[in-house]
Amino acid sequence: MSGLDDSDLERIKMRKLMERMRSLSGGEDAKTQSVIDHPVELTDAGFDEFVRSHGLVVVDFWADWCMPCRYMAPVLKDLAKEMAGKVVFAKLNVDENPRTAARFGIMSIPTFMVFRGGKPVDAIVGAMPKQKFKSLIERYLS
Q1: Domain count, the chain
Q2: Is 102 within 8 Å of 85 (Cβ atoms)?
Q3: What digits encode the pLDDT tens for the residues 45-83?
Q4: Per the domain annotation, does 23 fall within a domain?
Q5: Domain assignment present for 103
């Protein structure tokens, strides 16, 4: 056995994905050129690298059993398309990735954390209509 655990493998996988994205977009500044128009599934292992690799990221901390989370899933999907190129949306299942949820003190779901430059700048808790959610996120576009 090589001595790699699941988190090591996940980190390698995420790094390879980022390298592939850079090569497909034609250069090292792929993080500013690539457009992601769908919510990206994150894990504990790849979380930090992902939020550092994109300017403005909204992460949905959710769980399968959470009805308000299910309500917000299509809202995230729509906003990911509408705001592609400006905001990257991601999802982290708190049941499958408890370390990251604990690190950020997630006590209620859904919680949407806004990251700018890899650092958390806000947390939005609870389900809400799409337009209200969009307006809360738009505050960070300037």
Answers
A1: 1
A2: no
A3: 999 999 999 999 999 999 999 999 999 999 999 999 999
A4: no
A5: yes
Nearest-angstrom CA–CA distance, 53 and 62: 22
- Give residue 15's pLDDT band: very low, low, confident or very high (50, 70, 90): confident
Question: Do residues 56 and 83 lie in contact, with contact meaning Cβ atoms separated by under 8 Å?
Answer: no
Q: Is residue 12 included in any domain, yes or no?
A: no
Q: Is residue 24 scored above 70 in pLDDT?
A: no
Q: Which are the catalytic amino acids?
A: 66, 69
Answer whether residue 59 is part of any domain.
yes
Strands (E), the chain: 40-42, 56-62, 88-93, 111-116, 119-125
CATH number (domain holding residue 130): 3.40.30.10
Q: What is the mean pLDDT of residues 110-134?
A: 97
Taking the model in full, what pTM does it have?
0.77
Q: How many alpha carbons fall within 13 Å on the CB side of residue 94?
A: 20
